[in-house]
Amino acid sequence: MSSSAPSPATVLEVFDTFGPPGTPLTTTEVAEEFNCTDRTIYNKLDALVNDGLLKTKKVGARGRVWWQPPRDPEQRANCKLNQDWITETPPDVDEPLIALQSGSEMAKRIRKKDWSETALGSMDDWPQQLQIAVNIMLSANEAIGIYWGCEHTLLYNDAWRELIGDKHPDALGQPAREVFPEIWGSIEPMFERVMDEKSVAKEQEKRLPLDRGEEMENAWFDYSFNPIPVADGSIGGVFNIVIEVTERKEVEKELREAKEQLEVATTAGSVGIWVWDLETDLVTADTTVAETFGIDSETAAAGTSLDDYIASIHQDDKDQMQQALEAAVNETDEFEAEYRVRNVNGNERWVLARGEVEYDANGNQIRMNGALLDITERKHQEKERRKQAELDAFRVTLIDELRPIADPVEMQHEAARVIGEQLDVDRALYGEVLEDGNTNLVHADYYRGNVPSLVGKHYLDEYGQYITEGFQAGETLVINDFSTVSELGDEEQTRYLQMDICAWIGVPLIKDGRLTAYFIVNQSTSREWTDTEIAMIEETAERTWAAVQRTQAEQALQESEKRLQQTNASLERLNAANQELINADTEAISDRVAELVLDILNVECAALWHYDETTGELQENACHTNSEIDPVAIRLPDQFSEQVWQTFIGDDIDIDNDLDTPENASGSLLRSRVLVPLGRHGVICAGSTRAGTFDEQTIGLVETIAATVKTAWDRAEGEQELKRQNQELERLDQLNTLIRQIDQALVRADTVTEIDQSVCERLADSDLFEFAWIGEFDAIRETIEPRQWAGINSRIVEDRTITIDDSATNQNPVAATVATRDPQVVADIATDRRIGSCREAILEEGARSCISIPLLYEETLYGVLTVYIAQPQPNERNQHVLDELGRTVAHAIHAAQKQETAQTDSVVELTLQFQAPGTVLARLARDADVKLQFKGIVPAKNGFSHIFFTGDQTSGNEIQNAGADLSEITALTCVAEDDEACMYKATVSTSTIVSQLATQKGAVRTLIFDRNTAVAVVDLPSAADVRCYIDDLQRTYSSVQLTSRRSCDRSPETVQDVQMAIKEPLTDRQVGVLKLAYLSGFFESPRENTGQEIADMLDVSPPTFTQHLRAAQQKVFALTFDEE
């Protein structure tokens, strides 16, 4: 080791011998040139650095390198490319401009690379300006890069290569945007300024987050961007000169911090002084050091063992502190170490200890003098900076990963993946909390191994009270081990552990006072979560929420714009539909509405529910689906028809944008639908397989559609009603004209036949009807036969006989008219088989419907008028008018018959019908279930009467048995019989219906009892009051009904006079005996009953019977022959 130290200038010359400026040397390499200690040379080198002649950089824990800069940093930071170097014309030589004589790595790589596959093309085709710029770049010591063309394709030299780290060698020939995506947002404006404005752009001490190693780092640079013009005057590329000043910035920062710490420490008294006696191994220290290590201040001042101090050092820091002491004593003479100290109170502090070995005059080490600085706060700041750096790097990664994603669900998945891989956890997920504050949805998650996905619907109250309340309070919950969380119950701990969740972090997101989302990461094993990890998760939660909100807002905007376009298109289609509906009738509107709604709204399904005013029912009229949907597969919600009905009667739009979806449902389910009332016309239903389809804008369009349809429908109905009214007025005019014609004919008609003929002919001649006929009702035979017709082939009606059945159902309409006395309508003869066997013939005649009208006047049926119409479903007004016509015709027939009776010796023949009259013969016919015909009645003793009647010969047993059960019949015998009927004599104790029928000189011509009905044909004198006669009968028999009335050519006065003349000389006894003998067949040949049998009937002896009979005969014969 030389005795004299070299001068700084001599030391600086060594750098020129080792290599060009920028060649790094260690302290030992320089010291070896002068044969002196490293410490001495270190001091010289440090002085050169302070003078700005050298640069230095710390390497590793204790190493450092030194180098000579190429030129002054200030000059290089502000350097500008000499444009003449590039623009001047090169000499006319055969050699290529790009000689690339340099043997540098980048020169070799540029020569070797196939540039034809890049935007620059083959090197032979490079512009001269680019070739010159590349030669300048490769020959320079500075870090230079060239960006060429509109894509800014990158070339660079060896010095630049060191700056970009791991980006080399892939960066060569690549666009700048792809090489530096992490800083492109910062440097792109400079490229634009240079290329557009042709001016130089530069930055001093610019901080850029650069990804050039294993992790993102913040680096500091001085750089300039210089334009490279080409032959046409435009800018072909950018010449970029860069100097990294990161180390300088860090040193400056450390110096500032150290200065600040020293000032603070000195001011606060936190700098302690200590001395280690290398001979006695005792350490003396002041109060500050003693308090830091937890040693008594007096003991520390007196001196104590070094081991006492080492005992208070953190176990993890003891080795490196002791190694630093040994190196200082054995090698460097200087000691510096940072370590943690725990005092007697358990408080842990970071300290910086520095010391320097002191030698005596003989060069022997005698002590180490040092200082102790409390750097706890600085360490915390460094930790926070490291945390922030990690967060910054992670934030850049997260932002870069999320930025290109446009789908919120994919964004949630990617955020979960980034944090999951960053923290190496088993699961990460983002959950969206719905407005109810409990339901939450996980749309996508990150998971690995055997950990299952948690995508789906969840409920916050299932997480346990501790987590639920923490989330609601907005607290980040950190759980290192679920089994140790006392706030959770045993059940909850067990449930989480069974789900392989041991360590867990949950970050709630409270927005606008409400829990809107959360971010969760978990692991199947316990874990001590660091503050940085927690901060990363919180950062991820906030970034994800913001990104999702932004994306959803962008999607909403795009959807809004899309919907606006769709609305405009829908409005165009609506206008076209409006034009289509303007001239449509109601049927066309009903058929087209659903299809138009489907087209205008662009939904999957549309239907019209139409209200039928005649039935009062709301039924689905038409349903349409688009081509992509199977109509059969469309499933409507349960009770859908009830919802449609409620919309119809409520007149409010019913919207459901989130229909329940049954589990394991198949087919196309409607997820949203709207029901829109159309007033009295019905309801429009539109459905979509997408949830949330019917927003406010769509509903506005739906209301417009509904208003358009309703208006068109009202107009069509109005026009249709006006047309119908016009047709009805025309028809009424025709009908009124017809009625007037018939009325005039009735006035002119004198007989029933003329009346019938006039009515049928005028009805048949009218355009309103096809043909008509009038039937005569025979109450005795219970049949109707045609008596007049017109407009129809005679063979169809002339031999037709209609029988009245007991059953009112499925009865011929003519028979039903007689039975009910009410008009009967056959709406469609083609489908109604009540017409009978002539139905096909009637259809061939052109009739499709008919109306049968009773000719009824004062409850008397004068026949049945049946009118046939060409159209089915006859108008109700026809029925009413024809009903009135029937009464008019009946009145005319009544008047004609009355007139005819007044002008001749005719009688009025009445046909009367009784329902269950209750007389003895009526009950006998009912109980025996037979038909009985009254023949006569003979008074007997003690108020009894003998009634004679006939019954079917085959029903003898039934009549006898039924008679035996009736208390009113005291005796019942068959007095005569033939092959078809038997004559019976019944002795009864009650009055009969015959006495009532004989009032007002009435003569009973026929009286038949058929089960529950009795029919009587009675002749009254022409002067008799028929109305009074019927009223008298109804007082006793309320069910009596006048079924027919007609005039007959009989002289009741003459007949009655003869009867009275015969009866006048006879006693009542003689009349009874004579009538009984007559009715009993005594005068028949052969006799049906002998004199003895008649005497037995009279309860007298045969001679007495003979005496009464002879006396009566004598008087009758005398009345007949004495006048001759």
Characterization of the model:
With 1124 residues, the protein is α+β, with helices and mostly antiparallel strands. The protein folds into 7 domains: 8-67, Winged helix-like DNA-binding domain superfamily/Winged helix DNA-binding domain (Arc Repressor Mutant, subunit A, Orthogonal Bundle), CATH 1.10.10; 85-244, PAS domain (Beta-Lactamase, 2-Layer Sandwich), CATH 3.30.450; 251-382, PAS domain (Beta-Lactamase), CATH 3.30.450; 405-556, GAF domain (Beta-Lactamase, 2-Layer Sandwich), CATH 3.30.450; 583-722, 2-Layer Sandwich (Beta-Lactamase), CATH 3.30.450; 749-903, Beta-Lactamase; 1065-1124. Helix content is 43%, strand content 25%. Strands 35-36-34-33-37-38-32-39 form an 8-stranded antiparallel sheet, with helices on both faces. The protein has a 6-stranded antiparallel sheet with strand order 11-10-9-14-13-12. The chain has a 6-stranded antiparallel sheet with strand order 17-16-15-20-19-18, with helices on both faces. α16 (376-402) packs parallel to α20. The longest helix is centred in the middle third of the chain and has 53 residues, at 696-748.
